[in-house]
Amino acid sequence: MATIRDWSNFIAGRVAIVTGGGGGVGRAICIQLARAGAEVWVNDLYGDRAEKVVREIEEEGGVAHPVVADVTDRGAVPGMVRDTGPVDILVNNAGIPPEGITVKSFVETGPDEWDPLIRLNLAAVLGVTRAYLPAMIERSWGRVLTIVSDAGRRGERKQVVYGAAKAAAMGFSRGLAAEVGQHGVTVNCLSLGTMKHGLLEEAIERQPELEQRLAKAYPAGRIGRVTDPAPLAVLLCSDAAEWITGQVYPVDGGYFPAL
Hints:
Radius of gyration: 18 Å
Helix content: 40-55%
Number of helices: 9
Shape: globular
Order of helices and strands: EHEHEHEHEHHEHHHE
Largest sheet: 7 strands, parallel
Mean pLDDT: 94
Structural class: alpha/beta
Low-confidence stretches: none
Strand order of the largest sheet: 3-2-1-4-5-6-7
Number of strands: 7
């Protein structure tokens, strides 16, 4: 019978990597994993962003390291794995291109806009997971958590390719969970609603009324904060969640219930 660890040291001894961990939701998950006792590798496309999060974690007494790599570059992923070594926990968080998501109707878009979204939100998830999974299987313990979106669960106008890539990542996660559960590896997703971050946060600073308009769609009465998904992420990456796999959990203020 598995022992559920003390919450104050919930995943002590585990090594984690969070892709796109240099800001937003990824940063919050990195910090929360470290607070729960994990050694955290902060992956980002930009070294200064990763190093800043590492410093934040170290200032709290945690252990963290930066690892710079473009997860959409298949040639770069093996180098990232060599740098980090095997990990127990993989959080596939990278999902928003540096230029943000183009909000256009599908017929106004073309392959040049589709391809980056598919590479980042699906192909990178496959590639990074494939790179770290064998060591988890070998050691009979692992957690794979992928951050997805309600644009993939429900469907959203003017985000159809982004939503399609996220929906595919969910399908991948369900299938993989069925394959690797016998090896002590769980595979789950967190599905997010609108988050106050990045380009949207900048837009809200210019037009404060925008936040109120967006919040009307959420029973919880507000849009998401980047810290909202982190506690559930820690739980799903712990021993306590050994019998939870193949699931997609909404963290969306009630926007689109799963049941």
